[in-house]
Structure formats: C-alpha cells, structure tokens
Specification:
Radius of gyration: 24 Å
CATH architecture of the largest domain: 3-Layer(aba) Sandwich
Number of helices: 10
Number of domains: 3
Strand order of the largest sheet: 6-21-22-20-19-16-17-18
Oligomer: single chain
CATH topology of the largest domain: Rossmann fold
Largest sheet: 8 strands, mixed
Strand content: 25-35%
Distance between the termini: 51 Å
Shape: globular
Number of strands: 22
C-alpha cells in the first residue's frame, strides 16, 4: 500500500480526537488505516496520504454507507463545513461516543489507574441547548474555490484555505445568521479583497460575533488588515465602515447591539489578534448572566461558548470544590478568564485569587466582581508560572481551567508543590488532561470524582471536570 491508493472499509474503532480506524484486506493481510472524521459503524472510502509510526493514514473521500444509528443531515452545510462532525447522530448517541472516547483515552494514559477512573466517573452533563447554543463565532473571509467569489463563513472540511458560506448554520441563532449574511452582501458590492494568508495581501480577515444567551446583548467586530490604505483614503475607509455599521443596525434582531467594532490585525498568523480597536457603535464589551451573577465580557477575553451548559459545568465545579470545605479557606483560580468560577465560589471562601494572562479579561473580572458586590476576589494579570511566585498567601484549594494545551510543566510543578488537599481541574482537551494526570498521580493525588460536560453538541469537543484529592 502506498500514497495515493484508494481504500474502502468499515470503521471498526473510533478514538479521540475524531479519528476512525478502518480494517482493509490486502493480500490476505488485514491493514489498519486511520481516517479522520470517519465514525464507527460507517463504511467509508478514502485515499492513503501517509504512513506514520508504522500506521497508514488516509483522507476521507466519501461515507459510502452511514452507520445504522445515523439520521438525515439537519444542516445544509454539513457535508462541506468541518464544524459539526456528529450532527447526523441523535443526541443520545453523540453522548455515548464522547464518553467512550474520553474514558478510553484516560485509561490508555493511566492503564494502572483504570479502576480509579471507572469508580470516579459520574456521567455526562448534557447541554440544555442542543442547537443554536454558541454565544461566540469567528467567521472567515475567503473564497469557495481558488479565485472564486468572496465567501464568508467556515473553512471547508479538510481545507485551510477554502471557505464555505454558512448562512444556515444550526449551532448559532438567527441573529448570527442575519449579521453574517448582511455583512457578506454588503462587502460583495465593494470589490474589497479578502486577506490572503499566503501572500499577506488583501484586507478582509474575520467577522466575529458574540452574544449573551440570557442578556441578549450582541457584540460584533470586523477584523481587517491595514492594507485598505493602499486603495482608500482614511475618509473613504471610515465611510465604508460606518455604512457597514448602519446596515447592521437596520437588521431586525432578536437581541440588541451592545457594540460594533473595527479591529486592525496585521499579524501573519491566521488568528484573530487585536492591534487596535475602533468603536463604531456602542461600547467594546457585552454582558451575560450566569447563576445570578452578571459578567462583563470584552472582545478577546475567554468565556465559555455555551452559556446554559457552562452554568451546569460551574455548578459541578462548585460542588466538587466545596464538599467539606474549610472555613476561611483561600482558593486559587488559575487561568481564571473573566473570573466566572472565582466569583461563583467566593461565598464559601475567605479569599479567592484569580490569575489570567489576558489583561483585558482581568480588568473585566475586576469590574464584574465590583458590580456583583463581591469583595473577596483578587485578580492578577500575568502568566501563571511567574505570578505564583508573587502571591504571599498560600492556597487551601486550587481550581485549574487551563487553555487547550494544558498546563505548562514548570507551572504544574509549582502548583503541585503547594500540596493542597483538593484540586478541581476543568479541561477542554482530554489529551492534555490525560498528560497532566500522570504528574498528579506521581505527586500523590488520586481522581476522586470525574464528570464530562457537553458544551459543544454536534461536535467531537467536550469538557471534563475532575476532583483530585491528595492521598
């Protein structure tokens, strides 16, 4: 078997992250082939593209026959867009797939602790919203094919360049869809090129929309390069942005616009970066309510993408942390984001110290705490590794909610050296959690309770939360 060979077979195994295993018969020998986006029970066709560590990998070309428990495509963009892998499965089946993948992953990382994992596991916390649940989306400008017309939406499955218009996306609500369509139609007639990330030319980069599920407040920001000055004068560009803003304000939205912004980004990476923000309308933040508290959320600060499911997750975090909690305890909330968890556990602690590297998120956390009349939360801006050395008061408990890549090993070493009796770890990437758990066990901790929280229905993503107790 070599690169370019066509294969077809039944998916007999499915591992995180979103990788199926197909058994292919060749010369009376069974060959195992990995295919991303192929799900157990499907019969799929693909093309071999490489061999890595003795295992063949193939690119998915077609689902020849669906799994027995699949349903019809609920979204017209499903086959092109790479966002919602599980959308053809009933919600109950999605939960089963996620649970098995994550539990298998943790047990492979800690094979001698499999009994601990089984004993600790308490099940999946399901999302109250199964559709239209996202409160944040980053849409990309591009073209649907090389040198094709302007497109605005999500990247096509398996492509880092082609973009598919996603005007009927089912994981966002109607306000997102109307804003997306209106923006695309507006820029269609202006002949302004999208930013080409290989050539580093062009103007239009991203359209970002954030909306409070409960507050209904909408924050929209258009991200462009500064290459507009090669074609337009400053006055002309200002007129273009203001006309776009006016078009948005004419939309009959379910929510209300809190702010409309223009963000400059000349960073070479294909990511949304803030190199200067101009407020075109309203203010540069929106607000959202969680569990009776109100939070200020700035354009680039972290906030869970599914507000109602986040409430369920944070209730579980609070439950894990506060079981038999000591009076006058000190809690560290590391990687605190906008300080949501810190404020939600503050009533049971004498002091909560939150650390976050994004400065604007820290300022938003401070303001939210003040609005919520919470006086025992202190928020620090900086890297966790460096900030820990500057905190004089020692913790009784620690909450960890790190980014997808997990905890810096040096920072984790410092965290473990506190030897607190209880740590609650929230993870959005199971493989990072699995890696870090090895260090916890080596330091004398054990998984006591473990849950999953489905904040991302229709996708393979899933949150995990575990209680680690020092033995």
């Amino acid at each position: 078997m070599k690169k370019g060979d066509k294969i077809e077979g039944l998916v007999v195994k499915y591992d995180f992250p979103n990788v199926g295993m197909v058994d292919v018969s060749e010369n009376d020998e069974i060959i195992h082939v990995k295919i991303k986006n192929a799900i157990i029970g499907q019969r799929v066709a693909g093309t071999i593209n490489k061999k890595k560590h003795g295992l063949y990998e193939a690119r998915l070309e077609e689902v020849v026959k669906r799994a027995d428990n699949e349903t019809a495509d609920p979204c017209p963009h499903f086959r092109e867009c790479g966002g919602c892998t599980y959308q053809t499965f009933p919600y109950e089946e999605q939960i089963k797939i996620k649970e098995k993948q994550i539990l298998d992953l943790l047990k492979r990382a800690l094979p001698d602790k499999a009994a601990d994992i089984d004993e600790a596991y308490e099940g999946m916390i399901e999302s109250p919203d199964r559709a239209e649940y996202r409160n944040k989306m980053e849409f990309s400008f591009g073209d649907e094919y090389k040198d094709g017309p302007l497109a605005l939406g999500m990247h096509k499955r398996g492509s880092t360049y082609d973009v598919v218009n996603t005007f009927e996306c089912r994981i966002v609500d109607e306000d997102f869809r109307r804003i997306l369509r209106t923006t695309k139609e507006y820029f269609d007639g202006l002949n302004i090129p999208y930013y080409h990330k290989m050539r580093h030319d062009g103007v239009l980069r991203h359209l970002c929309v954030r909306k409070g599920r409960k507050s209904g407040e909408i924050l929209v920001f258009l991200v462009t390069s500064s290459n507009w000055n090669l074609t337009f004068s400053k006055e002309e560009w200002t007129d273009i942005l203001n006309a776009w803003k006016d078009r948005l304000l004419e939309i009959k939205t379910l929510g209300s616009f809190a702010g409309i912004l223009h963000v400059k980004n000349d960073c070479l990476a294909d990511a949304v970066k803030d190199e200067g923000t101009t407020i075109l309308y309203g203010r540069d933040y929106f607000e959202e309510d969680l569990l009776g508290l109100r939070f200020k959320i700035s354009p680039f600060s972290f906030f869970q993408n599914n507000s109602l499911a986040a409430e369920c997750l944070y209730l579980k975090v609070r439950e894990y942390l506060l079981a038999d909690v000591k009076e006058k305890s000190v809690v560290y909330d590391l990687y605190t984001g906008t300080g949501t968890i810190a404020q939600l556990v503050s009533k049971a602690a004498s002091k909560v110290i939150g650390v976050e590297i994004v400065e604007e998120a820290v300022e938003a956390a401070k303001e939210s705490a003040k609005r919520n009349n919470i006086t025992n939360c202190e928020f620090m801006a900086g890297d966790v590794l460096k900030c820990l050395d500057g905190i004089e008061v020692m913790p009784d408990y620690i909450i960890l909610d790190p980014p997808r890549d997990g905890i810096n090993p040096k920072a984790l070493e410092k965290i473990l050296d506190y030897e607190v009796e209880r740590i609650v770890y929230v993870s959005c990437k199971p493989s990072s959690l699995a890696r870090d758990l090895e260090a916890f066990y080596a330091k004398g901790y054990k998984i006591k309770r473990l849950s999953m929280a489905d904040l991302f229905p229709s996708t393979y993503h899933c949150e995990s939360v575990c209680l680690l107790s020092r033995v």
